[in-house]
Amino acid sequence: MRIGHGYDLHRLEPPPPDGDGRPFILGGLALDHPTGPVGHSDGDALLHAVTDAVLGALGEPDIGRLFPDTDPRHDGEDSRVFLEEATRRMTSRGLAIGNLDATIICEKPRISPHAEAMEQQLADLLGCEVDRINVKGKTHEKVDAVGEGRAIEVHVVVLLEPVTG
User: Which CA distances in Å does 151 have to 8, 24, 44, 45, 54?
Assistant: First the structure.
């Protein structure tokens, strides 16, 4: 078995012309929100953290080394591309998701109405049963940039296990 931890943080801003925010995509889902992540790709903090957790469990280079923000090919890139590559590396080594636990920290939007859809999206991308995926939302109790609604933070822990059968 192998364990990995992933983390991501993105500043949230209004879309242009008032800021540099992109549309709010989280867990591959488009959410209605007046601000969005500032990032080189689509800024999906959940998929970025999941990708890093899987890559970390594999002992592979992180998302920033595999898909650098200095590469113009990744400008606005759908973050599912990054997770698909991590999943390909995982399955090529005979490993699969044992379980994945994700904590999304933001004041808004509320995560609970979207958690099941995010879990299904992650299960589909990772090629596992949805009961192996847990997504939960927390607030930061109005503390710092996350608590003031100016950022979103995600932590993910993943357990990979050998494929059996």
Answer: 10, 12, 12, 10, 23
Q: Is 153 helix (H, G, I), strand (E, B) or coil?
A: strand
Mean pLDDT by runs of 10 across the 165 residues of the chain is 98 96 97 95 97 98 94 92 98 98 97 98 98 98 96 98 89
Please, what is the Cα angle at 13 between 8 and 18, to 5 degrees? 155
Every domain of the chain and the residues it spans: 2-162
SS3 92: helix
pTM exceeds 0.85, yes or no: yes
Return phi, psi of residue 158, to 5°. -130, 140
Three-state DSSP class for 151?
strand
Amino acid at 105: I
Q: Are 23 and 13 within 8 A, CB to CB?
A: no
2-162, CATH topology level: 60s Ribosomal Protein L30; Chain: A; (3.30.1330)
Instruction: Give me the sign of the Cα torsion angle 118, 83, 153, 73.
Output: negative
